[in-house]
Design goal:
Layout (H helix, E strand, L loop, with lengths): L4 E5 L8 E5 L6 E4 L5 E3 L4 E3 L3 E8 L5 H15 L5 E8 L6 E8 L2 H7 L3 H10 L8 E6 L4
Antiparallel strand pairs: 1-2, 2-3, 4-5, 6-8, 6-9, 7-8
Helix pairs in contact: 1-3
Length: about 140
Amino acid sequence: MTPILKCLRTDPDGLGPLIRQSHQQPETTAICDLSGGWLDRTSLCLWSPMHVTCVHIHVKSDRIEEFRQASTLNHRESIQEPGNQRFDLLQSKDDPTLFLLYEAYESEAAAAAHKTTPHYLKWRETVADWMAEPRKGVPYESVAP
């Protein structure tokens, strides 16, 4: 599966081949065939399906700052993983004890591999007692960018 790529240039009508640069390997630039994905004409970027998990987390009110710190460390390592497209840590504006992890990977295998990494295993163990209730991961597949 083609990863989501940063587009560097398109032909003037926006319909031809793209010169692309992988965010995973910035030194690698290649001409891209659009048959593997869709052209988003607004951003002129190639789109390919992603495997996304939204993890809903409710943290104990006295552990918010520790959770933020531990999760930020997990985020920094997760975005370096092969196949990672995006890994966001979000906190509710209305209820600071509610968090959402938005995890996007280029394949189910890459998403599964995330759960075996040392940083994820450390994060999971570290935050386990800080949960007000069990976290819930909801898997999604992208339909459109």
